[in-house]
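Notes to self after the call with IL:
- keep both proteins in one doc
- input above output, always
- annotate only the second one for now

Protein 1:
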Amino acid sequence: MDSNTLIRIAEALERLSPRPQPAPDFDAASAFIWHTGPERLDPVPHVARVDLSLLIGINRARDILHENTLHFVKGLPANNALLWGARGMGKSSLVKAIHDDIAKSHPLILVELSREDLPSVTALLRHLRAAPDRRFVLFCDDLSFSHDDTHYKSLKAVLDGGIEGRPENVIFYATSNRRHLMPRDMIENERSTAISPSEAVEEKVSLSDRFGLWLGFHPCTQDEYLAMIKGYCDAHGLHIAADSLRAEAIEWQATRGSRSGRVAWQFFTDLAARHGVSI
């Protein structure tokens, strides 16, 4: 076999098994996104977030998660957290806002991991474990599983960590619309058709039990909805008569058929544009 053939074989093997990526530069940003193909941590220079003070109607969840995160950055015991409940009520916004607030005074890095990339989480944890002088919030938004989804098995590497344990410098926060991370009808269906109903879904349902904190988010009241909008107006210097603001905001929510923090922000975005205010 000539040398040219050997070179081509070596190049082909290298393409099939790319070289390991260099260690991430955690000084590049305070937030990163984990990608696969190839596996890497990309810095996020500007995170899309709102200020913690503008998150209204979720005071209890805000205070508990903030205290838990503060314990974590100080090297004290802290729990993984599952933020579950109503859509648009600020679950992911709260995680990002708390990171921003605490990172102003403590070194804390936010790492976002998509549900689809959970199978690669062991490689990600290896990178984070290799930086023991840093503290990381590993964040998975909109986490849920279907009945034939096996990605949940990878989640155990984050929550339990196997024989190595979860890295001491990593905490895991997830958001979900489902308290048990899978649809109720699938839970009931598997229980009714399984040979051992009590064990059929135990492995999946018990995932939520592995989170030390369960923080529930519920639909907001009309007063909370209006207070959110007023907070946005004050923060961005948009002045409008209280009666007009209330009437327009209620009409907007009526056309949407729901109230939430997301609907409040969407209304404010429209309102700001109509009044020529940049946000």
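Protein 2 (the one to annotate):
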Amino acid sequence: MTPPLFEIRDLHAATVEGGIEILRGVNLTVHAGEVHALMGPNGSGKSTLANVLLGSPEYEVTSGSIHFRGEDITEWPADVRGTAGMFLAFQYPQEIPGVSVINFLRQALSARKGIDLSVLELRLAIMEWMERLEMDPSFGERYLNEGFSGGEKKRNEILQMAILEPDMAILDETDSGLDIDALRVVATGVQEVRKDRTEMGVLAITHYQRLLDELQPDHVHVLIDGKIVESGDMQLAVDLEHNGYERFGV
């Protein structure tokens, strides 16, 4: 029997500094091609979960495990998870002065593929994806996220996801700070990538139903106080939009 693409088993995690427990037993299973959404109020542990899943050194897994394509990756460092086929779109992408978008992508893709790619080899693929994502071709020469608007930063994250061809993508509040038009562009970009990578799993972490209206997830989960307390379909997201989290004691 084929194992799930991605599986979180009774995951507990705490901050390295201070040992504050934030995740208190998260369970989640993503099969190939599925889109999952994780919702929850501020302080519920959503971004902590995203960072733990990508191996952030700021957090320590105290018990439980993370599995990717059947392998226990709980102890894998972030770079190994990335080259293995996991991707995290950050809520607040970092600026890297002096490093162009195209050079950053060349280095990242070379590490992912295990071969040293030239800029020329990469340029054609980037130009194709920039057209599909409705991005200005000059974007590739700009320094990574330096002077980018919020929408440009998020669109750049989607470009990275397209070029790096991950098997599992984790989107950490990709809709944060975006107006409805920019959000639609990002959501459309995710769907464009999924057209080419139909087996890619997606975990979209968000506060808002509006992103999910565009992505139409297969499963929606509610994270409260470091635990998933309810799972359902898109109707669950609609209910949360209208009624909030009061019934969960928040």
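Annotation: Residues 6-248 form a domain with the Rossmann fold fold (CATH 3.40.50.300). DSSP finds eight helices and twelve strands in the chain.
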